[in-house]
Amino acid sequence: xxxxxxNIYFRNSLIMLLRHLCAVFMSAVGFFPTMAQQKSVLLENxxxxxxxxxxxxxxxxxxxxNNVIQTISKTPISVNGQDVERIxxxxxxxxxxLIDVHVHMVFGALTMPQMMTNDLSDEFLLxxxxxxxxxxxxxxxxxxxxxxxxxxxxxxxxxKGKLPGPRxxxxxxxxxxxxxxxxxRTPNERSRRFFGEVSRAERYGATxxxxxxxxxxxxxxxxxxxxxxxxxxxxxxxxxxxxDPVDVTQYTLxxxxxxxxxxxxxxxxxxxxxxxxxxxxxxxxxGVRCIEHGQLLDEETLALIAQxxxxxxxxxxxxxxxxxxxQRRLKRKPVIEGQEKVWPLAKKHGxxxxxxxxxxxxxxxxxxxxxxxxxMQKWFTNAEIxxxxxxxxxxxxxxxxxxxxYPGKLGVIEEGAMADLLLVDxxxxxxxxxxxxxxKNFLLIMKDGQIFKNSLKK
Length: 458
Prior knowledge:
With 458 residues, this protein is α/β, with parallel strands linked by helices. The protein folds into 2 domains: 35-97 and 410-454, Urease, subunit C, domain 1 (Roll), CATH 2.30.40; 98-403, Metal-dependent hydrolases (TIM Barrel, Alpha-Beta Barrel), CATH 3.20.20. It is 33% helix and 20% strand. It has helices at 2-11, 13-22, 112-117, 122-138, 152-159, 192-195, 200-203, 212-226, 253-265, 277-286, 299-308, 326-348, 382-397, 438-441, and strands spanning 40-50, 55-56, 60-65, 68-73, 84-88, 93-96, 98-103, 141-146, 167-170, 174-176, 207-209, 231-234, 270-274, 290-293, 311-314, 352-355, 421-424, 442-447, 450-454. Strands 1, 2, 3, 4, 5, 6, 17, 18 and 19 form a 9-stranded mixed sheet that branches. Helix 8 (212-226) packs parallel to helix 9 (253-265). It is globular. The model is unreliable at 1-37 (pLDDT under 50). InterPro entries: Amidohydro-rel, Metal-dep_hydrolase_composite, Metal_Hydrolase, Metallo-dep_Hydrolase, OTAase-like. This is Imidazolonepropionase. Residues 93-451 form the Amidohydrolase-related domain. One of its GO terms (molecular function) is hydrolase activity, acting on carbon-nitrogen (but not peptide) bonds.
């Protein structure tokens, strides 16, 4: 079923993109308008968040036509004869939509028992994960980068208008060595190479267990064939996996180079899961362009990352919970301690920083997605944080180049940029906590020029 679905998705990707650009979208959910019916939108009397000056502008007027910002003016915009929806912003803050560059849309929406006991059919995923995707959009997240999991059916459904959700930059199945962070086999599942049986996680598109240059090349190319915008490789140990200590380095340099070469041949890049300096230095030597995590980094390696212009995609991982497995608590201890150090050190060395959440198998955490942004206030100003979760994260998305599923500029409010916008009741430059209560404070949510929420409309 998945291969059939993926093939259909890949063959139709160009058609879907043309429909996206020509405004045929969101037709299946009754109270969301189709793009065929979409009017131009004129936002009047709004104060725009300006990253360059780190201020809000004086009240301005913004005209959105189709899916882009057409005009920004200090004086009223004449729209005589046009079919335009006028919205008076009342001097509220207009800012770009939020972006999370480290999500697992499937793994984050399901519990581990749900992952293990269900057949993970397309219908099950679209029902359970689809609701989570809609809720994420209603929290103001208009774009996300999915860094591992069976994401293609959900992305296709959102792009075709079958359900609302954020734009998704998909990685597809994670790529892991045997006994690596993406080796999700249960104890009774034996090696495919020696016993010829594909593991459940591989069968459902969660991971590829690939050893040796040839298998890594095939795994990367399979994901690209399905429509991946970037490749996620497991380069070091993890805290939520059974077989690999956090300190281990995964994949040889040759294997990692193979992944980078295959991705670059398609005009895109590899990002790696890694915590330690040794694993990250090997990844840098192989040519990766982004590091996920890195909470155990030292200053010397952070300086190298900055020198090479590599992105560090960091998180503020959730604290231990009382019912967490003792072995996992032990593995997490150095990582949790390290994240208090790495954020300020990365800032000190001028590392290009991105932000994400990385929620896994605890769906209740998703409701805290906005609140987790506030955790960065220990080390950054509100203006720096707002830029990171919009413009900087958008720059990470566009590392995918021509493999980006949504061409256009995101993360800023300027003429010609894509119309992913939030109208906020409050000034987040002065009080960042306003973005932690999207139900109350996000008066308008727009993605791709469409209004998904409008609290100003009586």
